[in-house]
Specification:
about 170 residues, Transcription Regulator spoIIAA, 4-stranded mixed β-sheet, 6 helices, about 50% helix
Amino acid sequence: MLRITISSDSDGAIFKMEGKLAHEWVAEAQKAWAEFTNSAQLKKVVVDLRAVSFVDDPGHELLAQMHDSGASLVGTGPMSSALIEEIRQEATPRKSKLIRSLLSLFFLLPLTGVPPRTEAARLSDASPQRDGAPAMRRRHKTEFSELACPTPGERSSASGPTRKGLCS
């Protein structure tokens, strides 16, 4: 069972929960929180968890949402204190993780040394040539044909480095 009590004054509001924030009671608390936040335009909101005896994973997520929306979580005892501290520590990485990822991507891409490819370059690599083979395969065929051994008549007239071990 979960009891929710809302009290407000000129300074702010208190969203007090008592009992277990678990199972079907999480949905009820979420509905009450949604109604509360939609109707009240308060500067300071405190979520009082001092009388909460148990919180399951969906309840933990709801409390994290409350904290992310600007509410202060208050509790006493080892369970409440540990839960509140965990939610506060998780809040910082959640907010800055995307920003850190984008910034590192932005700074690391130039270090790869690979110039960005345009859409036209990507399409030209994938477009078929006259014989139906993609451009990538055609390049490989050209490279391998250049490595072919010269005919006996060409061997004597070939200039440049010899291909030792490749041709007999």
